[in-house]
Amino acid sequence: RAKDLKTRLGILLHKPELGHRIGTSSKLQLGSRRRDSSREVLEWRESFDQLLKSKSGVTAFHTFLKTEFSEENLDFWLACEDFKKTRSKTKLASKANRIFEEFVQTEAPREVNIDHETREITRKNLSGATSACFNEAQAKTRTLMEKDSYPRFLKSASYQDMTKQA
User: Fold this and answer.
1) Which residues form the RGS domain (predicted)?
2) What is the pTM of this model?
């Protein structure tokens, strides 16, 4: 299964002898974004909201999440943000189904880590899709990123290099 492979690759990533090579390539990707203002890069560590408000911050965080094989969390959060801007009822329903199938349903190709209860609430919300139907799942995913991935991002060699150059 793809999820098992993802987990195994994640474990390998955290082995020091392998992480160095992977970490170096992510440093190069983040290093190419030198146009980020020094101030903006430093603001990212003030709060997770500051990071999410910044287009280049989201890009840097996404690049970091790819190294951890967990970019689906941010992709889901961003898809929900885009979804909330949808005004057409027809488009709302089709986008909701697409997001659910890609990120929320059990065994989804890019399944986010949410509990069964939240998954079921979200499934029920699809029957009358509104711009708020993913709110609970999105909030849980955001909390997971803020409490788990974001602190690791701030400690990562890539972010540390960016702050040194800022």
Assistant:
1) 47-163
2) 0.77
Strand boundaries in the chain, DSSP class E: none
pLDDT digits (tens, 9 = 90+) for 16-42: 333 333 444 444 444 444 444 788 999
Any idea which residue has 């890019």 for tokens?
110
**Rounded Cα distance, 81 and 131, in Å:** 9
| Angle at which helices 135-144 and 71-84 cross, to 10° | 140
Which string of DSSP letters, residue by residue, matches 25-53?
Answer: HHHHHHHT-TTS-HHHHHHTTT-HHHHHH
Residue 137's nearest CA partner among 150, 153, 120 is 120
Which residues fall within 8 angstroms of residue 70, CB to CB, at 6 or more apart? 10, 149
Cα torsion for 160, 59, 31, 8, to the nearest 10°?
70
Tokens 């987990």 sit on residue: 7
Rg (CA), the chain: 17
